[in-house]
Model the fold of this input.
Amino acid sequence: MLSPFVRSGCYQVWIGAGSGSQSVLDAMDRQVKVEQVRTMIRLCKKRGLETRTFIMLGYPGET
Done:
C-alpha cells in the first residue's frame, strides 16, 4: 500500500488523526479507530516514511 509513495520519493506523510482519544474521535464521528492510526504510523515508519499528525485540541466535551 505504501510502496508507490516510497518509489515516488515521498518521505513524509501527514495523517488526519483528529485525536488520540477514541471517545473524542467517536464524538467527532470520525469513523476511525485510534488503533488504525497507530497501525498506519507503524507501517509508515517501517517503510522509512516520516509521519506527522493533525490533532484537534479543545473539541467540545474533551477534558
Q: What stands out?
A: The longest helix spans residues 34-46. The mean pLDDT is 94. The chain has three helices and two strands. The radius of gyration is 13 Å.
